[in-house]
Amino acid sequence: MNDRIDDLLGKLDLSAKIKLISGSGVFRFAGDPSIGLAEMPVSDGPSGVRGEMWDERDPSVSLPSGTALAATWDRELLGEIGGLIAAEARRKDVYAVLGPTINLHRTPLGGRHFECFSEDPMLTGEMAAAYVRAVQAHGVSACPKHYVANDSETERFTADVIADDRTLRELYLYPFERSVQAGAWMVMAAYNSVNGTTMTEHPLLDEPLKGEWGFDGVVVSDWTAVRSTTGAAHGNDIAMPGPWELWGAALEEAVRKGEVPESAIDDKVRRILRFALRVGALDGTPQQVPAFGDEAAARLVREAAAKAMVLVANDGTLPLREPSRVALLGAAAAEPRFMGGGSATVIPAHTTSPVEGLSEVLPVVYTPGVHLTDHMIPVPMSLVTDPETGTPGLTLRYLDGDDVLATEHREAGSLMLFGNPNAMRAKAIELRGTLRADVAGEWRIGFAAVGTLRLEVDGETVLSDTVLPEGTDPVEMLLNPPQRFVTRTLAAGDELDVRIELIPAPGLPALGITYAVGRPRRADDEEFAAAVELARTCEVAVVVVGTTEQIESEGFDRKTLRLPGRQDDLVAAVAAVNPRTVVVVNSGAPVEMPWRDDVAAVLLTWFPGQEFGAALADVLTGAAEPGGRLPTTWPKLMSEVPVHNTQPAADNSLPYAEGIHIGYRAWLKSGVAPAYPFGHGLGYTTWELADLTVSGRTATVAVTNTGTRPGRQVVQAYLSRDDSTVDRPVRWLSAFATVDVDPGETRTVTIELPQRSFEHWTDAGWVVEPGVFTLHIGTSVTALPLTADLA
Ligand code: BGC
């Protein structure tokens, strides 16, 4: 391969090489026909493959979020998910997926917590390796991100993480090391700095990444993370998105002047050519990937979602046994979060909400009980008609004065337009759709966008405004722009012709536009009382609570772990009238649950992907077991969380003062008991672990299902060390194994304890402290019945 690469490199002059190290589009690596190198589209990919465009006409399978996948602790399942991701990538003609996200849950406030796997580096590393292997087995590149220490969002472009070598090596770098061992072809360099240097110019790209670990793939910058022309002398290989001016003509000039060595550019190009050979973009066709039909994809997502759900408390109410009537409550039951917000967003062809999923199998009566947000929603397609086609949907026109550049029929209320060639040229965008009120009451009708906007209702201008972005993060501005609206009192069946016109801000193309509505709703107290009354009259109450896109998303961190709105009050009031209250928590990261000891059962679902409702129905009825175990500690109160600083100081520094003590390590150190410990999860059966034997670094344990249902257990192995001269966690995860066992059966589980889990990082490299380590085996970091000493 290397001779071929040298040969191709020799055919490129400096300016051709410079073209290759910047993208040729927002989500596209450059090609060069003179050497048979195709352009290489890439796509965000942690929880589904969006493709180059955000477009509902080319939908994607929406997968469970990172936290959910890690909650399965299931490498084989990750392998199957990797196959689905690769199939989606091929279907969308992309050569690489920008995932997995393998930063750590340093604090539950982190805005992208949902996207990352775990607070533990070992569990994160195992999930990352399984994902990378599975995707790349099909000739599609994965891209573990963001290298490194991008563990929170506040001022993410400038934050300067201050962390010592040991902390970096043992925690934050470790999942990347595992990904490289698994053969990753691409790694994304983060926005932030570490110890004073921005990551796209950081020596950590050389050592350990490209040197000690032998990473021979490409380092791609996070989008806009390349900061300087001369920074090209360092380890980042591709500047994205493209074309990136700092690495264009200015870089060519810098190389000619000797400010950046041409050898640095050659190394980048070699890596890009190697990458192209791997993904089939050089003179060839990419590897075939077995297609996943829609049904097979839905089945896998549904199975993964159920395996990820963590039953943290249950008095025996779950699984439900043919209840006569179920009160289903909570705004999130009808409008749940299938996925987290930000670049991980995909547009699924269909979704199943808890209301839809549970209504299929249970005698459900639904009312929301609370309103979570005052935000309007993108107009549902069931309520609008495209005036041009007469079918459900909207007409989108791209205008330049009186010229119509293009007209599209669209079937989504919220349209992302950046990267769209028509939108790049248009001077104005027009969105039209006839709204039909399905219920009587006061409707809000409006838009969400940035630019100069005009809203017409039945031919009359009712609102015009120039809307400026709020916040500073571009992702937030793109995905969560300000909303404006008018109100109208409508009778059921009333129709209104709605037209929204957007003139983008000077110098900017249209980035996106949302036709938004707020449906009539009952007054808060009336709605609340109706829910409590319904719960009183039903055999069981299921309350779905959750976060919103406004409080949990990429681009910002959370300020509180409380659930928004009156959700806590609703659960408490429902539990007071119905002893069989089951709470379903739909969040990507921990939330406070002040009512947790007063309800019959608590089920954590994370952001479970498009099949949420179906998977939830499986789990609540017992058709599937909630297979998940916590990949992150769940606190009682935010005030007790050991690590919360996400706000850089005035000099941008963000000290990781806690060192190696994050997550359960910090909880164990503080001595405070969380609500639910790392590794915890109940499932629907009972277990006994016995007969621990150890030979060398191999442990075996007999796992018996002592209950009456088949079940799945995650057997966890932790190490501890008495009389250590080194600062250590009280104990730390060494290895784990998942096992399925039938009722009454015993299976012997073998667990290999990796050498690394005995080592710690010193100035002299990895070292094993002589002496005795203790092995603890069990089912969570605090439920460890078996121990053995290891010399
Ligand atoms: C995110 C990356 C993402 C990229 C492209 C950035 O803002 O941090 O994770 O891959 O955008 O969408």
From TrEMBL:
Superkingdom to which the source organism belongs: Bacteria
UniProt key word Hydrolase: yes
GO molecular function: hydrolase activity
Boundaries of every PA14 domain copy: 389-532
Membrane-traversing stretches: none
Keyword Oxidoreductase: no
Signal peptide: none
This protein's UniProt keywords: Hydrolase
Family the UniProt entry places it in: Belongs to the glycosyl hydrolase 3 family.
Protein name: Glycoside hydrolase family 3 C-terminal domain-containing protein
Species the sequence originates in: Nocardia acididurans
Lineage of origin: Bacteria, Bacillati, Actinomycetota, Actinomycetes, Mycobacteriales
